Amino acid sequence: MQAPNATIASLHATYERESGERLRLNGIYYREQAWLIWVQQGFTEADLTLVIRYLKEMIRKDRRRPESLKFSNLVESWDRFEEDLSLARGWSRNRPPAKSARQDALRAIGRSEPEPDRVKTAGQALGRLVNKEDWDKWHKEEGL
User: Fold this and answer.
1) Which contiguous run of DSSP H or E holds residue 46?
2) Is the pLDDT assigned to residue 128 strictly greater than 70?
3) Are residues 110 and 52 both part of a single domain?
4) How many of the other CB atoms lie within 10 Å of CB of 138?
5) pLDDT per residue over 54-113, tens digit each?
6) How far is Cα of residue 136 from the mean position of the Cα atoms in its chain?
7) What is the DSSP letter of 44?
8) Do 11 and 73 reside in the same domain of the chain?
9) How far is CA 94 from CA 66, 97, 98, 136, in A?
């Protein structure tokens, strides 16, 4: 286990990185104290990351306000954090699987994945032209 100061510094760095907020830690006694109490409640760096990512997604969908990411709301109010952690865990269990790079690229140009049953190889598409009668019939239909 890390020393308390190293743990606090690591948690604060995670908070800044994930939330995008830049707050001084050194010399600000109440922030250090807030982190100590937060850690005593049994929360982890993984919990912090999960909650911040959940809140950012909810902010993006206009279900939460940006103020949700304030230090005072996340760390100092550990009871609110505990509630958000519960919601974030449910959210992470029920998230749809991540899209592949291919799906992202197709969506970006306005296309979707082809339906598997409609995709055919050249051999399958030309498979009906196996015998001479079919070939001649196709040739006439196409006017060739």
Assistant:
1) helix 45-60
2) no
3) no
4) 13
5) 999 999 999 999 999 999 999 999 999 999 999 999 998 887 766 777 777 777 777 766
6) 56
7) -
8) yes
9) 23, 9, 12, 56
Residue 7 tokens read as 């743990």
Among 40, 48, 42, 37, which Cα is nearest to 89's?
48
Amino acid at 128: R
pTM beyond 0.90: no
Alpha-carbon distance 6 to 8, whole Å?
5
What's the length of the chain?
144
Whether 37 and 70 share a structural domain: yes
Residues contacting 88, CB < 8 A, separation 6+:
50, 51, 53, 54, 55
**How many Å from the N-terminal Cα to the C-terminal Cα in the chain?**
80
